[in-house]
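Notes from hallway chat w/ T.B., transcribed later so I don't forget. T.B. wanted the structure written out for a chain they're using in a teaching module, and asked if we could keep both sequence and structure tokens in one place. Agreed to drop them here.
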Amino acid sequence: MPKPSFETWIAPATGKITDEDVSVVKVTNDFARHWTVELYKELIRNILKEIRGKRLIL
């Protein structure tokens, strides 16, 4: 992932795991939500799977 993309879409986001299988990613606005989902949803899921050892619902 290019550094400008990370700094624009990922760095401002926060997240938490709400239960065993659900992770909530909070972004700054609806525009950021759209682009984060469109471009990085699978990447985020794969990273969380690697960390948690199972696939989470975003």
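Follow-up for T.B.: The chain has two helices and two strands. Might be a good example for the class.
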